[in-house]
Amino acid sequence: MSPESRHPFWSSFCAALFALLLFTVISTGKAVENSGLGSDFWEKYDDIADWVSLRLKLTPEQEDKALPLMEKNFELQLNILEDYGFARGKMPKLTREQKEELDAKIIAVRAATRVEMVKILNAEQLEELKKIQQEYHEEFRRRLNKN
Q: What's the chain look like in SS3?
């Protein structure tokens, strides 16, 4: 998808997603190669919105509906992380109870997003979305448990 064909908020959406990934990499002191995304991640996909669109094989009509939901999902998750003291370059020490609570809240946001995406995606795309969410969740839990 060319930048000119994108809805105006995609640039800020992509920047926000990039910032979260960068925050995750910086906060753990690990390189992208060790983050579970693979060393060729940035070579294959120049931004997260394109990556998700390609992976889900979204049509332009689906993108118009799905990407705003993904942006909302992302912002809700960022707000939850901020509530627990996460900030750029800062990963607070959390108790086991706080980690479980945080994890449950993140799962709830992702589940709510999937409920909305059922209206937009076909069965195959929905399964791929579940895989994407699971991959990110596993990485999130791994990093959370290291802390």
A: CCHHHCCCHHHHHHHHHHHHHHHHHHHHCCCHHHCCCCCCHHHHCCCHHHHHHHHHCCCHHHHHHHHHHHHHHHHHHHHHHHHCCCECCECCCCCHHHHHHHHHHHHHHHHHHHHHHCCCCCHHHHHHHHHHHHHHHHHHHHHHHHC
Contact 144, 99 (CB under 8 A): yes
Question: pLDDT tens across 10-48, in order?
Answer: 444 444 444 444 344 333 333 333 344 455 544 443 467
Question: What does the pLDDT average to over 108-113?
Answer: 94
